[in-house]
UniProtKB/TrEMBL annotation:
GO molecular function terms listed in the Swiss-Prot or TrEMBL record: proton-transporting ATPase activity, rotational mechanism
Keywords: Hydrogen ion transport, Ion transport, Membrane, Transport, Vacuole
InterPro entries in the cross-refs: ATPase_V1-cplx_f_g_su, ATPase_V1-cplx_fsu_euk, ATPase_V1_fsu_sf
Signal peptide: none
Oligomeric form and interacting partners: V-ATPase is a heteromultimeric enzyme made up of two complexes: the ATP-hydrolytic V1 complex and the proton translocation V0 complex.
Primary site of residence: membrane
Pfam families: ATP-synt_F
Role according to the record: Subunit of the V1 complex of vacuolar(H+)-ATPase (V-ATPase), a multisubunit enzyme composed of a peripheral complex (V1) that hydrolyzes ATP and a membrane integral complex (V0) that translocates protons. V-ATPase is responsible for acidifying and maintaining the pH of intracellular compartments.
Record carries keyword Ion transport: yes
Gene3D superfamilies membership: ATPase, V1 complex, subunit F
Subcellular localization, as worded in the UniProt entry: Vacuole membrane
Gene designation per UniProt: VMA7_2
UniProt protein name: V-type proton ATPase subunit F
Protein's organism: Tieghemiomyces parasiticus
UniProt cross-references to SUPFAM superfamilies, sorted A to Z: AtpF-like
Length: 118
């Protein structure tokens, strides 16, 4: 397990402009040598394919430990979140300014509840 997490040092963020900007201001932003960023700002004009591609790319990167995704965006790509079963990168759904967190929609929380028979 230690080998799996050894090189994972970044957090990726997918969400609305305010949420992503807040995390970027905290210092998580990174652009690698291939000019690939660890964040994606999603608005009403962002094609669903772009969001799906970013999520898939983030899950394949060996330098990302955690993917933070606003729950509103997560709902759009729920099928991809449900297919992601790896421990790394861990996918965490977060609230956004305009949409409060709803635990009944969180795929990670649903898995935990199934594990404990709830």
């Amino acid at each position: 397990m230690a080998a799996l997490q050894k090189d994972r040092k970044f957090i990726a963020v997918i969400g609305d402009e305010d949420s992503v900007t807040g995390f970027l201001l905290s210092g998580i932003g990174h652009i690698d040598a291939r000019q690939k960023a660890n964040f994606l700002i999603v608005d009403s004009k962002t094609p669903l394919a772009t969001v799906e591609e970013a999520f898939s790319e983030f899950t394949k990167r060996k330098d990302i430990a955690i993917i933070l995704i606003t729950q509103q965006v997560a709902e759009e790509i729920r099928h991809l979140l449900d297919e992601h079963h790896s421990a790394f990168p861990t996918v965490l759904e977060i609230p956004s300014k305009d949409h409060p967190y709803d635990p009944s929609k969180d795929s990670v929380l649903k898995r935990v509840q199934r594990l404990f028979g709830e």
